[in-house]
Amino acid sequence: MNEVLRCIECQQEYSIDRIRYSCDCGGLLAVERPLEKLKELQTSLFDQRCLSQKDVDVSGVWRFREGILSIPESEIVTHPEGNTRLYRRKALAHWSGIDDIAFKHEGENPTGSFKDRGMTLAVTQAKRLGANVVACASTGNTSAALAAYAAQAGLKSVVFLPDGKVAMGKLAQALGYGAQCLAITGSFDVAMAMVKDLAERGDVYLVNSLNPFRLEGQKSIIWEILQNLSWQAPDWIVVPGGNLGNTSAFGKALREAYDAGWISKLPRIASIQAEGANPFYKSYQQGLRSLDAMEPETVATAIRIGNPVNFHKAKRVIKDLNGVVEQVTDQEIIAAKLVIDRQGIGCEPASACSLAGAKKLRDQGIIKAHESVVGILTGHMLKDTDAVLQHSGRELEPIRANLEEISKKILN
Ligand SMILES: Cc1ncc(COP(=O)(O)O)c(C=O)c1O
Ligand SMILES: N[C@@H](CCOP(=O)(O)O)C(=O)O
Questions:
Q1: Which residues line ligand 2 (CB under 6 A)?
Q2: Of 20, 104, 129, 324, which is most buried, counting CB atoms within 10 Å of its CB?
Q3: What is the ipTM score, two decimals?
């Protein structure tokens, strides 16, 4: 086995064959492998695998398996996932003021969000380590992904949801795929703390992004973008920030790709938070020394998170990649979502932070007119149909089944 778990604070090493979520010192753990192993990998290997029909090659995660988790292929639980599209539209370029802007639509994953890329790893690892019950706290998407992958692996899944705060599409998925769904009184952060305690007691295997294997899977979003761009890195990656798993995973993926020699420049990262759930943004304003947890409120329910568990990883990424943290208002989120939806692409509200944030950074001159940008659309439009119905500016118009009347109405 190439990989070990390493504490990001004190560097203590742990085996990946034992269940562990944090270091004895309290620090977060990251999966680490010798850089030499990555340097031995040629990007042409990943490109060749795109021609194969095998599930582990078709998967946009496991195609990169030597840099993700090197285990026997027979142990892998994959849908397969990934292979999401990169969209360019004149309207998005015009609205943001950035000519070279593309969006990677992670809503095209099997359960409709980027979480599948992390969950294939977390559930594979749960099975390898003999866990019986897999669990997460969730604003919705993690629960949908967990329920689906646990069903495939034949494991019991339990999800802890903030009562009344989860979009219906996501709740329906978790229920439909067969998870035990517990509605907790309190925010996502309360639910997260409870699952963490249960996991420390050994009752459940935790698959939130605190689990370092989740982030290894989410690295593939970046590696697949680089592959989509023929291994020419863009100037910027713009991503919504909630529990900060993606910000952390993206920084790791870019650093590894650069150090391995797969790309010749390091993009900057912009992590975009909702103004009502902005502890990372506030910390950034103060030099990223510490993070003050807050009571979150935003229309983007997926990122209604006030105490992001990956803060200490994400802050290192922002420093390492000369990144920025920005905030956008709910109004800006909805305006950006409308532009994306009207292009026939569509996304859930949290995802629209990428476009809203890119526009804001361009308006401020932080993103330059000539720079290339890839934004991440993290979740599918149908995840949150209430948001669509409330903000689309359209409504269902009742009409009699009469040709003249209908013709008059649509031609006027
Ligand atoms: C749709 C969507 N976008 C963005 C996020 C935020 O991602 P992260 O927690 O990795 O910062 C989440 C969940 O946290 C999500 O479900
Ligand atoms: N938006 C998330 C919140 C939990 O994030 P995770 O990446 O730590 O699992 C969700 O969909 O539940």
A1: 115, 136, 138-142, 208-209, 242-243, 245, 302
A2: 104
A3: 0.99
